[in-house]
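Recall that a protein's primary structure is simply its ordered list of amino acids. Everything else, from secondary elements to tertiary packing, is in principle encoded there. The following example makes that idea concrete.
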Amino acid sequence: MMQKNGFVRTIFVETPSLTDNTADAQRLEKCLMDELGTKYIRIPLQVLKKLPSNLRSWGYKARAVLFKDRQSWILVDLLDPFSNKSVLGMAIDIGTTRIVMSLIDLETGREIGEKGFDNPQAVIGPDVLARIHYSNKNTGLAELNRLVIDSVNFNIQALCKAHGYQKEDIYMIIGAGNTAMTHLFLGIECFEIIKEPYIPCVNIPDTQPAGNLNLDINENGMAFLFPNIGSYFGGDLIAGILYANLDQKEAPCIMVDVGTNAEIVVGNQDWLIACAGAAGPALEGGVSKMGMTAKPGVIDQVWIDPDSRDLMIHTIDEIKPIGICGSGMIDLAASLFLSKRIDIRGKFSKPFCGNQLFEKEGIDYFILVDENHSGTGEPICLSQVDLNSLTSSKAAMYTILEVIVKNTAGLEFEDLEKFYVAGTFGSFINPVSAISIGMLPDIPLKTFEVLGNSSLGGAKVLLKNPDAFERIMKIRQSITYIELNVNQEFMNMFSGAKFYPHTDNSRFPSLQNKI
């Protein structure tokens, strides 16, 4: 079904006569301004070159492919109204670890297909910091930019081919990523992001002809990247707010995106407060030698067998385990705590761990999977060092939530209508496990809602609805970003949260009969 208010519209241009000698371009402008309710529209030279013959051969009817930027609407291309040429857009989540793309029919809003792949910049550095440092050396910035653009182009071609389309059918690319990834995608210097006073080059990038970014789509195609708030709050978070409709809620809600950092937004249609904190490096391999990105063979779920009290595991694709990911780590910590294998301080309990615990070089190790059942031939173990990292991460997470919800917004956790968990990590997190270790507040489970890839979701929202452009800019303007200064009060709250589930167990009533 044709979208009446989408980026592709069928238009009728007034025919000229001897009594009306208005130029073709101005006739087209007037038609489009009336259609869009705008005072200005940009028509590129590429469209003007064949405009007279096209309008006359099409009987002054056309399919207009449109887009917006901060100043005006843009006429991307004018197409034969009688042709069945596809008009597509591509939404891209420009993740630090992984890039995910979704192909969208701009006329119907139909999602055609999706493709994910590892960010090729990882060959230069696994994290943002390493890549920013590399970008400041000789040809480093150009290399990083070429890696991501070449990979995106390759996968655009593959995704189109898989679904019977041509890359020339794509007229629009919408991307969302953190501030550093946005700069690297645009090929813009980003070294100042990590230097005091932490200033990005650009927060609101202009809509660009795709060719300016070397993106291999239709020659008239355009590209738009979601704006940033600052160095540590990027377009991926604004896309997430859009996707969760946080900016349209009446009651206060919260959105948490957990990865190497935890980015948090709380608010509603009247106000939005955001902060970022280093809450999760233990969860995805940043600190823990055990934690790894989700892939086949990685343990993603751990639970206690109700009869034997043994720890049971599930692996992605149900093959022999090779390691454990963030969601599995939280499940594991919850299972260890609820089975008394770790105490309230997060320390292994030898009587309850039995022969699953061994010591090496003065450090305790818990064997989750022995070498006979492991996919690597080596036992999969959790060390006390890894567990300490996880304990600090869960404590930081809870403390950040407490600071932004209670101290900053003046709310109680119970006042939140929805608790959205975003990001690939958020897709798999078990709220019961996160509550059990004191990582998330003990609120009704129906409050929690998993958003999945909210960065990609927000990019898709814009491709399906041009009105979302105003919402994006309004969201950006309405966010109050707070720096979490590590003051004494924060440290006191953090110290209390380093116990399982907390020094104040009354905050976790659902655990009273379990611990």
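The chain has 15 helices and 22 strands. The domain at 8-79 is CATH 3.10.20.880 (Ubiquitin-like (UB roll)).
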